[in-house]
Amino acid sequence: MNLTISGHHMDVTPAIRHHVEEKLLPIQRHGDHITRLEVTLIVEKHLHKAEANLHVAGADLFASSESDDMYVAIEALADKLDRQVIKHKEKHRGH
C-alpha cells in the first residue's frame, strides 16, 4: 500500500507521521486490495481536520474527522476508515 501524508497550513512532523502510520496499520491488514491511501492534515484556526482518500479495488473511500487536537482527529479518522473498509469488504465478499 502506498501511503501519502501531506499537511495544509501545517508541517507534518515525524511524530505526527508516525502516529498516522501506527493508527492506519490495522487497515492495511484487511488485505492486499488496498492500493493507495492519501491523508491530508489541515489546520484552520483552532480546528484540526484529518481527511483521507482510500483507493481499493473497485471503489474509492473517503473519510474526514475534526477535533481540537490533531491526534484525536487522526484516531477518529482511522476508526471511520476501518469501518468503511470492513463494510466494503463484506459487500464484495457475497459476489
Concise synopsis of the structure shown:
This protein has one domain (2-93): Ribosome hibernation promotion factor-like (Double Stranded RNA Binding Domain), CATH 3.30.160. It is 41% helix and 39% strand.
Radius of gyration: 13 Å
Q: Give the CATH architecture.
A: 2-Layer Sandwich
Largest sheet, strands/sense/barrel: 4 strands, mixed
- Write out the strand line-up for the largest beta sheet, numbering strands in chain order: 1-2-3-4
The secondary-structure element order is EHEEEH
State the main characteristics.
single chain, 95 residues, alpha+beta, Double Stranded RNA Binding Domain, four-stranded mixed β-sheet, 2 helices, elongated
Structure description:
The chain is α+β, with helices and mostly antiparallel strands. It has one domain (2-93): 2-Layer Sandwich (Double Stranded RNA Binding Domain), CATH 3.30.160.100. The chain is built from two helices and four strands; from the N terminus they run βαβββα. α1 runs parallel beside α2 (70-93). It is elongated, with a radius of gyration of 13 Å. The two termini are 24 Å apart. The model has no long low-confidence stretch (mean pLDDT 91).
